[in-house]
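Supplementary Note 3. Input sequence used for the single-chain structure prediction.
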Amino acid sequence: MKAGNIVLDKSFSFAVRTVNIYKALQNGQEYTLSKQLLRSGTSIGANIREALRGQSRNDFISKMNIALKEAYETEYWLELLHATGYLDKPQFDDAFAECRDLTNILSKIIISSRRNDNV
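The predicted structure, written as discrete structure tokens, is reproduced below.
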């Protein structure tokens, strides 16, 4: 992976973390919730990458919004996995903090892009 774009780098790193959590949960015989986490957690970076090749400012903003929605969904699955005992506190805290960092960055990108669009 080539470094340089913070949100792209962070989302890729988070996707790797998500895959590793998924694999650990699969070994623990948890299949349903972990699959939901895998889908939403890896989708964040895929949508960011797609946004960077957007055909227009509106397309970029739309894809970034989808990435943000996926990040919020991922937070939900992490919270549920923690509340049901599948993720211990350190695992949850680290993954949730990384995901929350992404939601904050994405929110700022979207707000800034909309503001620049209205200038």
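The chain has one domain: 6-117. Residues 89-117 form the longest helix (29 residues).
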